[in-house]
Amino acid sequence: MKLEKYSFGIGDRFAHQGEAQLKAIIKAKEAGVSIAPIWNKSFREHQTVGSNHAETKKEADGAVEALGWKENYYVDADHINMSNVGQFTDHANFFTLDVANHIGKKADKEELSQFVKSNARLIGNTEIPGIHSASQVTENAIREVGEKYLYAIQKAGEVYRFIADKKGEDHFVAEVSMDETDLPQTPFELLIILSALAHENTQLQTLAPKFSGRFNKGVDYQGDISQFEKEFEADIQILDYATKRFGLPENLKLSIHTGSDKFSIYPVIGKIIRKYGKGIHVKTAGTTWLAEVIGMPLAGDDGLDMAKRIYRTAYDQVESLTEAYAAVIDIDQSRLPLPEKVTHWKADKFVNALRHVPGHPEYNPHFRQLMHVSYKIAAQTGAAFTDLLKKYEKRIASEVTENLFGGHFKRLFFEETGAK
Q1: pLDDT tens, position by position, 338-366
Q2: Which of 80, 27, 35, 33 is nearest to 56 (CA)?
Q3: Which residues contact 125 (CB under 8 A, 6 or more apart)?
Q4: 409 and 329: one domain?
Q5: How distant, in Å, are the alpha carbons of 83, 197, 328 from that of 181?
Q6: Which domain holds residue 388?
Q7: Do residues 73 and 217 share a domain?
Q8: Which residues fall within 8 angstroms of residue 114, CB to CB, at 6 or more apart?
Q9: Quick check: is 1 in a domain?
Q10: Same domain, yes or no, for 199 and 299?
């Protein structure tokens, strides 16, 4: 199974927007860019909503059938490990192997020594694109990377082989995720990581490293865009080198996790992947949920009341809601509007505060981030929320489609200029 050049993870918390999401993919195709749709959902999201992956696959299959989609599509078991992978194998054909919890743990000393020896051929190599100085490639530097990452990669290999045994190696796509860690990987670290992945025979097709800057949920990139551009281009070059040097799949590409709404770096990413003729995978989830709670207030008063109800409860539970997202949330609680004020907001006021329109005077990224993690509150309301999704399906679907196509695809795949 070979993943297409461009792919988008279109997570959907409540499994109602499959057709609306696929319509955005179809619009992109009609405009000249083919994007493979990947419906992604994690173990954590299933636990929060009370869903399972059979429902995620049903949503994807239903959207594909309803809209007559004839191209490939995927269902991603997002951020899985050995403790939960068995729950996904029957209903997924894309697996994101999350090794973040294992980074920094030490591999067996003998295995580490053998790994360092196997990479000695890289020492002194002065023609490794993406690496600023050949002096970086020393035996000690290889050992340091191995000490930090080898055990984690071995665990990725363990999960990969489990999936391959269950499904057959030609019947799924593998991604390795190491973005939820303390520091971004350098291009040199990425090189050694890819060597370890090749040694484990994990035929990964996408890799999600950690980049510098903040990739917060549902809001724009926070960081030095010029620094990100240098890192991203170096990583692209490293992947290109590694596929040839280590025998990894030739379509191996970078994956941007927490990728939704990173509007300021989309043109940079687009420029670089076009320069090198490379693909990209962008993983989103919460942006569709946010489009639902934007469309709902615009559709009716009961929709607005539900959105306010969710925010009011979330405001009182901000610490517990954000605890699991500490690495990807940056909320200044003093800048959250008081619930008693929000109670009197009209629909336009609520939507303007929530909709991600950079530069809009009423847009509030703190409000948006809290709503992003508040899907748990919506899930707790049960049918009260999902009945409104059905009642206002048409208005909400238009928000979902336009959010993906106009907000995301246009900036990433159709803009030719660099970052502004």
Answers
A1: 999 999 999 999 999 999 998 999 999 99
A2: 80
A3: 134, 137
A4: no
A5: 19, 18, 11
A6: 290-393
A7: yes
A8: none
A9: no
A10: no
